[in-house]
Amino acid sequence: MPEQRNHKGRTFGRRALLGATALAAAGSTALTTRTAQARPNDPTTFVLVHGANGNAASFAALTAGLAAAGHRVLPVDLPGHGPQGNFPLSYQAPQDLDGFATAPSPVLADVTLADNVRHVTKLVRRVARHGPVILLGHSMGGATITRVANEVPDLIARLIYLTAFCCVELRSVVDAFLTPEGETTLLPTIPGTGDPEQLGVNRTNWRSADPEFIDAAREALAADYDKAAFRAALNGFEPDEAAAVATDDARGHPGSWGRVPRTYIRCTADRAIPPALQDRMIDEADAATGDNRFDVRSLDAPHLGPQDPAPLLRILTRLA
After folding, report:
1. Residue 276 contacts by C-beta under 8 Å, 6 or more apart in sequence?
2. Does the keyword Nuclease apply (predicted)?
């Protein structure tokens, strides 16, 4: 499996990763004036940020449930995802696996974590005019929401990490996987394709019919899903993820990010981000901001969250 180097020269399989600007003074003043128009009793807006290989549709069930409970919901397509996603003809059936391994990824190959942060920050600025914003990140989406909170902490009522990366001492997503707590992840067992060094993306053939591939992916991501539910999830994944997002600096700053109230939803059956790694990130964040500690909730669920979203919806609606 091709390897990816982090900033210290250590290696980690690129395909194992799922699961990215400071205000000018005048812009900050204008923004404060606009957001002051929002009233505390205005409906909360949940801004939902997907992880690697995901898109806004990854939150379909959650979006429907939150909206039905009376909340405003904005699921985000990060740059190069959703309508901008890369789906080469070789990815369609009948698949041309050789062609798929070398097909370019014209948008995602150049995407960085900073691009994700700019995109989500812009959306947060817009929706904060209408009421409180709760910013949720799943998996690698946690790196994006942390950096957004560095930029606009006063526009975010709460950060929610759904079995997500929260880097404070650890520099990046890759560095988190290189810890003793991250070494049991099953993500490296999911085969990838192509050369990330040439493509600029980590590429996975989620449409593979190989039983060994499907079993490995299910064990890593959603071991307790029934087979039909997991196949439905597979069909929503995108084949490419920007390689740079996992190695870019994802650390939260105690003076900005550290001021925002935050919740961590632990998924105790997660085999992609092991519970021990989730707990390490929680502890390091709490140590950096002793007067603003994580509100921690736990779900008996795998990396993709519970197959039935009801337990997760109960947590989110209470937080709102």
Report:
1. 181, 184
2. no
Confirm whether 273 is domain-assigned: yes
Residue 100 confidence (pLDDT) above 90: yes
Alpha-carbon distances of 56 from 60, 99, 176, rounded to whole Å? 7, 27, 25
Closest CA to 78 of 16, 175, 6, 143: 143
* Residue 284 maps to a domain: yes
Instruction: Out of 9-13, 30-34, 177-181, pick the least confident.
Output: 30-34
Contact (Cβ atoms closer than 8 angstroms) between residue 47 and residue 133? yes
Strands (E), the chain: 3-5, 11-13, 45-49, 72-76, 133-138, 158-162, 201-203, 240-242, 262-267, 295-299
Split into its structural domains, the chain has a count of 1
CA nearest neighbour of 244 among 199, 284, 205:
199
Look at residue 5 and tell me whether its pLDDT is greater than 60. no
Q: Tell me, yes or no, whether 280 lies in a domain.
A: yes
pTM of the prediction?
0.89
Distance CA 315, CA 320 (A): 9
Residue with tokens 């009376």: 70
Residue percentage of the chain with pLDDT more than 90? 86
Which residue, 256, 264, 253, 265, is CA-closest to 302? 265
Domain that holds residue 55: 43-319
16 part of a folded domain = no
Residue 275's identity, in one-letter code, is P
Pairing of strands 201-203, 295-299: unpaired
